[in-house]
Design a protein that fits this description.
single chain; alpha/beta; seven-stranded mixed β-sheet; three-stranded antiparallel β-sheet; 25% strand; binds 5-O-phosphono-beta-D-ribofuranosylamine; Formyl_transf_N_sf; GART
């Protein structure tokens, strides 16, 4: 299967996926990496791995729709079987999401449905939560609201800060995303209606 990854920042999740997909038995190949920011370090990681990149700079568009149309055209040039959002920091329009229904995955640094949106680590600390974590979900029109596929937990220590918590969560992200992507490439994950399924069983 052909994997396209969308990034916006440092690309540590992309790096984890590059490392995993290079393993001989991995059932998929990253054919392109797309980014909305020309200066993102994630693009450097892709280039160093010999992976084709494309940039659709959102500051050059005067509408969200215009950006999404251009991004969709670039992505479709690569005929993806799966579209992986990895630290991609744009809210996508419903039309865009519909075009990739059932083949678009996202990783979010919280135990969804808690803390959709931004600043998830500080919010978990402020709430006095004892656990936090990461969720990987199918992307639907609800921001960070699609059916959850897998989660990983971290314990919140009394001396944790948003920064230390982010580090713990990021470590789990780098472990979990390659596992979920492997399952998808093996055909073991489907979005049936609004239900995520693993080997045909509702998750
Ligand atoms: C991190 O906050 C991570 O939790 C989230 O996206 C941000 C950057 O990730 N998924 P990356 O290093 O660009 O993959």
């Amino acid at each position: 299967p052909r994997i396209v990854v969308l990034v916006s920042g440092s690309g540590s999740n992309l790096q984890a996926l590059i490392n995993a997909t290079r393993e001989r038995d991995f059932p998929g190949e990253i054919v392109a990496v797309g980014c909305n920011r020309p200066d993102a370090y994630a693009l450097e990681r892709a280039k160093q791995a010999g992976i084709e990149t494309f940039t659709v700079d959102h500051t050059l568009f005067d509408s969200r729709e215009g950006f999404d149309v251009a991004l969709k055209a670039e992505i479709e040039r690569h005929s993806p079987d799966v579209l992986v959002l990895a630290g991609f920091m744009r809210i996508l329009t419903a039309d865009f999401v519909r075009a990739f229904h059932g083949i678009m995955l996202n990783i979010h640094p919280s135990l969804l449905p808690k803390y959709t949106g931004l600043n998830t680590h500080q919010r978990a600390l402020d709430a006095g939560d004892e656990t936090h974590g990461v969720s990987i979900h199918f992307v639907t029109e609800d921001l960070d609201g699609g059916p959850v596929i897998a989660q990983a937990e971290v314990n919140i220590a009394s001396d944790d800060t948003a920064e230390t918590l982010a580090g713990k969560v990021l470590t789990k992200e780098h472990i979990l995303y390659p596992i979920v992507l492997r399952w998808f490439c093996e055909g073991r994950l489907q979005l049936l209606g609004d239900q995520a399924c693993f080997d045909g069983h509702p998750i």
